[in-house]
Amino acid sequence: MLISKVTQTGFCGKIIDVHVHTGHWDKQCDGKPNGAEPYLVNDIFERADVVKRDGDTISKVIISNLDCIKEENGKPLMDELEGNKKLLADCKGNPRTAVLAVCQPKTGNVKNIETLFDRYPKGFVGLKFHPLTSGLDASDVKYVPYLKFAQKKNLPCLFHSQVNVDNNNGQLLNDNISVADPVKIYQSAKKAPKAPVILGHMGAGWGQAHSKAVDILVESIEKGDANLYADISWVDFKDPEKPNVISAIKRLMNTKKGDKTDRLLFGTDAPIAEYSADKDLYARVVRETKAAIRKNFGDKADELIEKIFYKNADNLFFAQKPVSKLKTGAVILGGLVVLGGVLWALKDKLSPVETKKG
User: Fold this and answer.
1) Which domains does the chain have, with CATH numbers?
2) For the whole model, what pTM was predicted?
3) Residue 82, pLDDT above cutoff 60
4) Alpha carbons 88 and 324: distance in angstroms, whole number
């Protein structure tokens, strides 16, 4: 009954999930120690493809390797070169996967990332940063070379963002600001203002954490001094009313620069944590988020759903860059020159056109 109702209301569509993972984190398998087994690409789709029951289609998932993020004894399990190359190999031949290159500003070097992009020019669609696990403050100057590289290549940069809040009441802990706070990410983003920078988890936490992230997002839009986005992974995942998602949409619809709902992206963080234990959670989050948007936005709901779940990510990560006017003009001029040469060569073979007399 649900599937029929959903289909009749135009509820279903294509989905791009901008925030999923493979690698070691918290997977429990066959009685082995927690986190001993890695998540695989198939673990993502085993959860994500449940949306087919509601008529939805997972078009793409954008993956980063947790082995480049998780640390033991102060070092990532894999470095910038090997970990990212491994994920490329794991995703080879799967057209529904796209790969983010995890960056390690604390222990790595932007030259590693440059090398990867030189060797695999079509391999990666963006960069990933996790200030929290590395402990490197998101405003540290070590992020800047990576962000400037991203700006040069027009690469989206997904940051884990997290606001410290009191888990009992959702109030901000302003005396204990997280190294991954959106304010600090914003500070670095302003040093490469054209690089698309995504606030993953929209500030994480709950309550005021999400509000703070949206405050920063809107501030960046209205000042025009950084190119910030946000994804909604983990936001309201237990609340079918999705109050923080709805609030973010309303604020982005009414910025001083107009409707900026193109800055909001769907993501999940699957298949880790609750997504690992509850294989129906993914489809439920999709279904409930769409239902909340439909409930709150009426005639605008279909457009918003398409943007947040598909179009915004497609435009950001995959849309073809327009040909510049200069390049277009050169192509046209070159074509005219070639055509003129052909006509000149054939001029003696062309019969004169007789003018009809009245």
Assistant:
1) 2-323 (3.20.20.140)
2) 0.87
3) yes
4) 31
